[in-house]
């Protein structure tokens, strides 16, 4: 039995989520159940949450927490840092310099156009002048000849007799209750219980061990669709089990193909926008693959290439990759994609925005056109659809809920309008109110801002750690592991942590800065309230965010949340259009080995928690 999940055991629960969520005016704080060992990061059990009682009295109030001010002359704190011995070469202090990209989102308008604020040239002189985007652009991949393709098996679906026996009315009712909408020719019926998908026994055993009660709606409908070997667009809310929706059919797909021979590349390729997400997907794949001798590896930037190359050369059926490193590996011919017949784009809308699209094109050009392609996301802006379909053939589409941008209804959303100067004080107030050892994730828009707040929090005694694209990978891994294990329950982050990450029991997400799109808002807050748990998202909204007010209100209303009058007032003061989603142009280029030092700032005295 999955201890944190009762939603999926109740077939009506999706239908009645408005009541279940009880989002308005909820008084008792949401404390998700703590679960056992964490899957990632050392395997340490979650320590019991320390209580306020044990921390030597409450933190000083009133004036104890000065409003945060930007230090005037760079940062120098952290040299030789207090976090020594933590497994990364931390403590080098400030690395801020003029060329720092504004944030992890890049903000460039696509790196071919040369317009926009981020993109090429923005990273400063530290990296030997190389613009990583252009470097990737310059990698020429061999032209593939798809003239003489060996046919392969992709329709692997056998409809279970119990599904065949359903009446049309039952099918319609089942879909309606779970808000499942389908498009496409010859759509298979959804399955209702795990064994109706006809997965191999080892899959069912792992599912049983994980304690899942029944398929989530996206799995119920997505599995038969994917098993039929057809292309697919699958859209379902954050935390609703999309990863397994594409991984389990991937195992069936692999098992139906001839074995790899020396020199063959992978059969399944999963592309994801961030390294941490790619690693997490592989961890999920390992849970199942190890039982079936299906090998997988993760190809992502920032980590040493040697072991990745070795894995590829030994032969792996499943590769999970971030696009940049994969192109690198393809360019150096450490891997080829001639055997790929099952291609997944996780966070597909992100992968098709202008930051990634050229890389995706490049990778897809290496894969046979009769492959099966599957897209997954919680958000699906209309601008993406046409481009997306360009890479698809006769696709199915399955949407859980409406296609309009929407947040997971298990999340209580609170928006507070304030001035920039008030943010830090408000954050501290929140921490004092809710901090009991459960995890809190705080999003900033810029790497610099992220470091500044982290530094300030640490100096004030709050043991926050931050993760963003200018930290080296070892530090990023360490911070995430500390957060996942609960050893360090406050994490600050840029949008590198916005999508896909599945950390149990995040109690609260704070948007310290409003994100640069409503899609990002939905993904960020979706780090809480996953797999049936509930969570809270607190968003700081300032005058400069006014253009998002109208769309944000729509999201709040759709989820039955309170719309503060001060937010409504903003719609009157601003033309409310957030801009074109695709043009946000963000590439997946993380750090170049920089360490910003914020994580190593010694904790201030009078540690509040
Ligand atoms: N059928 C199920 N029943 C209960 N829990 C499940 C089920 N399937 C998956 N889960 C769990 O739900 C959690 C969220 O799954 P997952 O990360 O795949 O969500 P997602 O839909 O990809 O979310 P996001 O849009 O944020 O990426 C995971 O911890 C996963 O193990
Ligand atoms: Mg996901």
UniProtKB/TrEMBL annotation:
InterPro entries in alphabetical order: DEAD/DEAH_box_helicase_dom (IPR011545), Helicase_ATP-bd (IPR014001), Helicase_C-like (IPR001650), P-loop_NTPase (IPR027417), RNA-helicase_DEAD-box_CS (IPR000629), RNA_helicase_DEAD_Q_motif (IPR014014)
Region of interest: Disordered: 1-29, 41-137, 588-609
Keyword Ubl conjugation appears in the UniProt entry: no
Entry EC no(s): 3.6.4.13
Entry keyword annotation includes DNA-binding: no
Domain of life: Eukaryota
Classification via SUPFAM superfamilies: P-loop containing nucleoside triphosphate hydrolases
Keywords on record: ATP-binding, Helicase, Hydrolase, Nucleotide-binding, RNA-binding
One term under GO cellular component: cytoplasm
Domain Helicase C-terminal: start-end pairs: 426-571
Ranges of compositional bias, category Pro residues: 46-61
Biased composition range(s): Gly residues: 77-93, 108-130
Molecular-function annotations in GO: ATP binding; hydrolase activity; mRNA binding; RNA helicase activity
Enzyme class: hydrolase
Residue ranges constituting the DEAD-box RNA helicase Q domain according to the UniProt record: 192-220
Family: Belongs to the DEAD box helicase family.
Protein name as annotated: RNA helicase
């Amino acid at each position: 039995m999955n201890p944190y999940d009762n939603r999926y055991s109740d077939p009506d629960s999706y239908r009645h989520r408005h009541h279940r969520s009880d989002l308005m005016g909820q008084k008792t704080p949401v404390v998700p159940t703590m679960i056992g060992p964490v899957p990632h990061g050392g395997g340490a059990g979650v320590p019991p949450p320390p209580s306020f009682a044990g921390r030597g009295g409450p933190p000083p109030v009133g004036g104890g927490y000065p409003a945060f001010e930007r230090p005037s002359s760079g940062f120098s704190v952290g040299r030789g840092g207090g976090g020594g011995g933590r497994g990364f070469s931390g403590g080098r202090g400030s690395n801020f310099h003029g060329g720092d990209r504004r944030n992890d989102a890049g903000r460039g308008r696509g790196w071919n156009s040369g317009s926009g604020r981020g993109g090429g040239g923005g990273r400063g002189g530290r990296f030997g002048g190389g613009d990583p985007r252009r470097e990737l652009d310059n990698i020429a991949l061999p032209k593939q000849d798809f003239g003489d393709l060996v046919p392969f098996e992709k329709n692997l679906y056998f409809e279970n007799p119990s599904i065949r026996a359903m009446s049309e009315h039952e099918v319609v009712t089942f879909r309606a209750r779970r808000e499942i909408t389908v498009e496409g020719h010859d759509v298979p019926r959804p399955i209702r219980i795990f064994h109706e998908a006809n997965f191999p026994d080892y899959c069912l055993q792992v599912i049983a061990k994980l304690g899942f009660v029944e398929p989530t709606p996206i799995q119920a409908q997505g599995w038969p669709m994917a098993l039929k070997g057809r292309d697919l667009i699958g859209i379902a809310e954050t935390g609703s089990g999309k990863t397994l929706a594409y991984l389990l059919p991937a195992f069936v797909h692999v098992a139906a193909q001839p074995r790899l021979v020396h020199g063959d590349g992978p059969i399944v390729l999963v592309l994801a926008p961030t390294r941490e997400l790619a690693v997490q997907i592989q961890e999920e794949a390992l849970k199942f693959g190890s039982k079936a001798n299906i090998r997988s590896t993760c190809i992502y930037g920032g980590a040493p290439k040697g072991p990745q190359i070795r894995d590829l050369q030994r032969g792996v059926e499943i590769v999970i990759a971030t696009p940049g490193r994969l192109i690198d590996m393809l360019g150096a011919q450490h891997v080829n994609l001639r055997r790929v017949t099952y291609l997944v784009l996780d966070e597909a809308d992100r992968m098709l925005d202008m930051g990634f699209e050229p890389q995706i094109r490049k990778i897809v050009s290496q894969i046979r056109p009769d492959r099966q392609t599957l897209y997954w996301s919680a958000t699906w802006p209309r601008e993406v659809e046409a481009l997306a379909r360009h890479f698809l053939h006769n696709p199915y589409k399955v949407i859980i809920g409406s296609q309009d941008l929407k947040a997971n209804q298990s999340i209580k959303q609170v928006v507070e309008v304030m001035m920039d100067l008030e943010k830090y004080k408000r954050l501290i107030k929140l921490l004092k109110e809710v901090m009991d050892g459960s995890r809190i994730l705080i999003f900033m828009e810029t790497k610099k801002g992220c470091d500044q707040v982290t530094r300030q929090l640490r100096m004030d005694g709050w043991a926050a750690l931050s993760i963003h694209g200018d930290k080296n990978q070892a530090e990023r891994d360490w911070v995430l592991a500390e957060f996942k294990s609960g050893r360090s329950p406050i994490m600050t982050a840029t949008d590198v942590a916005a999508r896909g990450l599945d950390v149990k029991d995040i109690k609260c997400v704070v948007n310290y800065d409003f994100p640069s799109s409503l899609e990002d808002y939905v993904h960020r807050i979706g780090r809480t309230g996953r797999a049936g748990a509930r969570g809270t998202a607190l968003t700081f909204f300032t005058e400069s965010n006014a253009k998002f007010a109208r769309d944000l209100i729509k999201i709040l209303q759709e989820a039955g949340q309170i719309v503060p009058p001060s937010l409504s007032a903003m719609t009157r003061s601003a033309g409310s259009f957030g801009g074109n989603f695709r043009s946000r142009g963000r590439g997946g280029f993380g750090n170049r080995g920089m360490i910003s030092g914020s994580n190593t700032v010694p904790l201030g005295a009078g540690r509040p928690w």
